């Protein structure tokens, strides 16, 4: 099996063959999820704990469903009501949970790097469900599966990632994944929302949305992450929509069969026009949600296989 990762902390440490292995397995879970009986026993007897230190709707729900469909015992920690609010550190919380012997820990945290730190302290497999503006690997994987299914391939595509790039872990993970798979990547948005150093990453940068969208096969819109801004990044929402919001007129410049993506939650009328988001001929936003469950099932399944193999070797006294 070509998937060796112990944790899923970012796309950075995955090889193209590991990405393909995961997406191929996810295809099987897409089929399972369309049946009436959606159960498999890939995680039977295992314990999965979801720790979300930041709000989430689709990511948390989809990790919960993924774990349950694979037969794990899934617990959602309500972090807003946890001892973190009483001053406990992230590491103390992690060590407390670790003592309860979870097998899979799914973590979302507002600080970049927090999930990597936590992974060093626990004995189970850790999945990064988004850390600050750093990485959100399962989002990039579900986006990749969505693209592969609608375009028939995941290479040599022109992909425009548009909007608030600077604050987006989704953009960062996608940039790494789509770059590894040899696509042409354009980052489109105001210069105030463009992270420094991206020009050296082999991507094209556009401030003008019309130029950036020209002939693109995939148009990926991002939410304005106002919770990570301290003012001054954009002129006004109205002006932002006028220049960088995706409307029919701007989309007409992309390839005639271009697909429109958004990781959600969407700000309709700010970064995207509601009618485009709802247009089933162009928008694959609901497909992204569907692929999310399947991709997370595949990720949990592969990590659980590696964990079992590692524990099996340790029990047999073999050096790991
Ligand atoms: C994204 C996130 O949390 O990074 N959402 C998601 O996971 N579906 C993007 C966002 O919040 O804008």
Overview of the structural elements:
The protein is α/β, with parallel strands linked by helices. It has 11 helices and 9 strands. It has helices at 16-33, 58-69, 90-98, 114-119, 137-151, 169-180, 209-213, 237-244, 248-251, 274-278, 285-315, and strands spanning 47-52, 73-77, 104-109, 125-131, 158-162, 184-188, 204-206, 218-221, 259-261. It has a 5-stranded parallel sheet. A 4-stranded parallel sheet has the order 2-1-3-4. The longest helix has 31 residues, at 285-315. The two termini are 17 Å apart.
Structural features:
single chain, binds N-carbamoyl-L-aspartate, alpha/beta, four-stranded parallel β-sheet, 320 residues, 9 strands, five-stranded parallel β-sheet, 11 helices
């Amino acid at each position: 099996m070509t998937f060796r990762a112990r944790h899923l902390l970012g796309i950075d440490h995955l090889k193209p063959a590991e990405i393909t292995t995961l997406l191929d397995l996810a295809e099987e879970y897409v089929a399972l999820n369309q049946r009436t009986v959606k159960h498999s026993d890939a995680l039977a007897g295992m314990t999965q704990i979801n720790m979300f230190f930041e709000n989430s709707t689709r990511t948390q729900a989809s990790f919960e469903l993924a774990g349950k469909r694979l037969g794990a015992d899934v617990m959602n920690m309500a972090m807003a009501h946890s001892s973190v609010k009483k001053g406990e550190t992230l590491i103390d919380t992690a060590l407390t949970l670790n003592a309860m012997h979870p097998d899979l820990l799914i973590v979302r945290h507002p600080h970049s790097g927090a999930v990597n730190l936590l992974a060093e302290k626990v004995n189970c497999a850790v999945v990064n469900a988004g850390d600050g503006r750093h990485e959100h690997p399962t989002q990039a994987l579900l986006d990749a599966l969505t693209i592969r299914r609608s375009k028939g391939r995941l290479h040599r595509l022109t992909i425009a990632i548009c909007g608030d790039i600077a604050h987006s872990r989704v953009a960062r993970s996608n940039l790494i994944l789509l770059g590894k798979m040899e696509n042409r990547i354009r980052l489109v948005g105001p210069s105030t929302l463009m992270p420094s150093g991206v020009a050296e990453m082999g991507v094209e940068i556009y401030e003008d949305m019309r130029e950036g969208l020209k002939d693109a096969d995939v148009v990926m819109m991002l939410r304005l992450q106002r919770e990570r801004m301290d003012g001054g990044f954009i002129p006004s929402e109205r002006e932002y929509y006028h220049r960088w919001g995706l409307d029919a007129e701007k989309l007409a410049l992309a390839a005639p069969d271009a697909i429109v993506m958004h990781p959600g939650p969407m700000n309709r009328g700010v970064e995207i026009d509601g009618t485009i988001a709802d247009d089933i001929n162009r928008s694959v936003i609901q497909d992204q949600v569907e692929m999310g469950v399947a991709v997370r099932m595949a990720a949990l399944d592969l990590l659980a296989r590696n964990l079992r193999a590692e524990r099996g070797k340790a029990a047999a006294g073999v050096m790991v």
